[in-house]
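Morning F.,

Quick status update on the modeling queue. The single chain you submitted on Monday has been processed. Sequence for confirmation:
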Amino acid sequence: MEKHREILISTDEFETRAAMLEDRQLVEFYLEDAGRPRIAGNIYLGRIKDILPGMEASFVDIGLERNAFLFVNEVLAAEAEFDGPAHEIQNLLKKGQDILVQVLKEPVGTKGARVTAQLALAGRKVVLLPLSKFVGVSKRLENGERTRLHSLADKIVPAGMGMIVRTVADGVEEKDLIQDVEYLVGLWEKISERARSSQAPALVHAEPGLAGRLIRDTFSGAYDRIIVDSPELKQEMQSLAEKASPELKNRIKLYSGKLPLFDKHNIESQLDTALKRRVWLRSGGYIAIDKTEALTGIDVNTAKYTGGRNLEQTIFKTNMEAAVEIVRQLRLRDIGGIIVIDFIDMQEPVHREAVLLAFNKAIENDRTKTRVSEISRLGLVEMTRKNMSEGIQTHFYEACPVCGTGRVLSRRRAAIEAFRRIKYVVMVHSAQAYVFKIAPDIAEALGQEAWLVGLGETSGKRIYIKATPGLERGEATLWHEGTIAQIDKFFDGLGATN
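Structure tokens below.
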């Protein structure tokens, strides 16, 4: 039975958020901060700052706060431009040399971006490799279709370049691929011209925003609809869809309900669950997710679940349910790197095989590249998952200011969530003035911003906040509402901040 798939996109002055749902359940979440543009996929004319022979890598200045990191194996596709053995970084690159690089991974913490010299320009149906001669087809396609598309790709690939045919090209005709290739060749010519006329470090190509990437890379006939809460964004996305997949244009809908889009579809509460260490299963068992510097460990427990005919059946049912939920959590949190899953030990080989089969079947829905080992006698599964983002927890959490080891909702994230709750009440209710209780540090953060002043001006209403110890970060509790005179009288002597 086909899953009901849809994408919800909400945008405001702070960020654009996208939630991907399968049968109304949140499976992937993406966020783009308006004040911190994403750089993965961007192409820069960089300059080699340092060569590190012992690490077979180099540092590249691309104009950001921290230098980017370039491994030797990310240079080799362009090695024809250099002299010397391919495996020696000092013979491939020279200090002070200019080089075109593309960001593979965003900067994280004290680490700079990871980049590659193997440039790739993504279109709707193909990816152009302007500095490589490799021709390939998505492995997600059936063998017969892969053979057909590979034959077409060999026929139309530009001289001296390579290309990869994407999964969405399933069933398309030669002219559709040619249209994509011609657009990307034109884009490459513009990038090359910018590089020739620029002085390193310089940005020569910026990836589209979140909404544009979703239309190009994700939205297909497998999705029933996209719902957006901004008329301007809807128009922009329909315009992009008109060029990429005209038949899908009318599946982009505008949401106009009073309740915020994410609240209407229960996204906020699903996110709250996803960000917790412990995720409960329907049966009463749970999975616990712990991240270290080296890997992510996931532990499965029966907890409150004691059903089943016997212990082995109880364990088997818990593991089967956990297998599906673990994959959802990997996608939702965008967990990457080495992952070790500790399923509850099963005595029956047939049960181990069934759990691994369920896990692999669930992971087929994950668009991110993964490699999964066999399940061991102890119930351990080792896997790797490629990811290019920091994961949603990095956006939401920061180190606990008290203990320094735990994680708490970040001050900025809490301030945004509190403001969104205040804005919803003010825009929906009809009173003239409002008083909200907010945690002291978040009240201070809001006081440093002009958000409440702007909301008061646009709504024509008066808004007060009361710093109240004991409230959770991000919580904004409506304390009182009424006419301005009523609120002034109520608030007199309480020392509120407007």
